[in-house]
Design a protein that fits this description.
By secondary structure, this protein is mainly beta. 9% of the residues lie in helices and 32% in strands. Strand 1 and strand 2 form a beta hairpin.
Length: 95
């Protein structure tokens, strides 16, 4: 029996499964794809992030980016996102 048959994962020609560690609202998620849409990112949490909240990518030293549902995001380790209420009306009276 060859070494590849004994250890199927030992095949050097097999593409490696990219696993990226990202955070959404401080929860860590492992993703195995190179890119995801905003909608797919919203589906990672349980329950999924609802329409009442917006999703933002944290940009260290810059302005955070609002991620729309159809927007494609390239995955990389350490990518961070947070959610915020979609409707903010400062000064509004609660009623």
């Amino acid at each position: 029996m060859s070494e590849a048959e004994q250890h199927p994962d030992a095949n050097p020609l097999k593409p490696k499964d990219p696993a990226f560690s990202i955070k959404i609202d401080r929860e860590v998620y492992k993703v195995h794809v190179d890119q995801m849409t905003g909608l797919e990112l919203r589906q990672l949490s349980n329950p999924p992030i609802g329409a009442a909240r917006d999703l933002f990518e944290v940009v260290p030293g810059g302005s955070d980016i609002k991620i729309l549902n159809e927007q494609v995001v390239q995955m990389r380790n350490g990518l961070r996102f947070f959610t915020a209420p979609a409707q903010i009306n400062p000064g509004a009276k609660k009623g």
